[in-house]
Write a structure and sequence with these properties.
Helix 2 runs antiparallel to helix 3. By secondary structure, this protein is an alpha+beta fold. A hairpin with a 4-residue loop joins strand 4 and strand 5. The protein contains three helices and eight strands. The protein starts with a helix and ends in a 9-residue tail after the last helix. Helices cover 39% and strands 31% of the residues.
């Protein structure tokens, strides 16, 4: 009896794990839709202070606004950002994101007045009105970074069409 029960139990366990992993994996289209929603939520939350978009090269562009005019623009490839580093900086009163490599300067910061573009390792965003410690802003930023990074990995995995070697 044990010899029959053990394989059946193993089969059911593997089947349940496969079903859970299928539910956890989202398609690139689902993730792209989530990224669009994330951007819309960020733009709504930071309305009047900052504007977010993805450019043609799939980089995150954050434009800082003052009286409706862009005063600074930060540009970064999202795959270089570290979602876990997103934090509220009480001293500066900003929400901060950093590059994955602490020594890296993966973010290009351009101050519109001077036109100078300088590399930096962190992005400081103004805290939106009504979000004193940036809790919602942090959650939205982390979600965008994670969803976009997942989308890129999924897209790369789906487009890997190379044939495998055969013996």
């Amino acid at each position: 009896m044990k010899q029959f029960l053990l394989p059946i139990l193993a089969f059911l366990t593997v089947g349940a794990q496969a079903q859970n992993s299928d539910q956890a994996i989202r398609s690139a289209e689902d993730l792209a839709a989530a990224v669009s929603t994330d951007l819309a939520s960020l733009n709504t939350h930071f309305a009047g202070q900052a504007r977010f978009k993805l450019d043609k090269r799939d980089r995150l562009v954050a434009e800082y606004l003052s009286n409706g005019a862009v005063v600074r623009t930060d540009v970064v490839y999202i795959e270089f950002l570290d979602a876990a580093s997103c934090a509220f900086n009480a001293e500066e009163g900003t929400v901060m994101m950093q590059c994955q490599d602490p020594r890296s300067k993966c973010i290009e910061k351009q101050v519109q007045k001077s036109g100078v573009i300088s590399p930096t390792g962190r992005m400081n965003l103004p805290v939106p009105t009504g979000d004193a410690e940036g809790v919602k802003a942090l959650a939205l930023l982390v979600k965008l970074v994670e969803d976009k990074q997942s989308e890129e990995l999924t897209r790369l995995a789906e487009t890997n069409t190379r044939e495998r070697r055969k013996n």
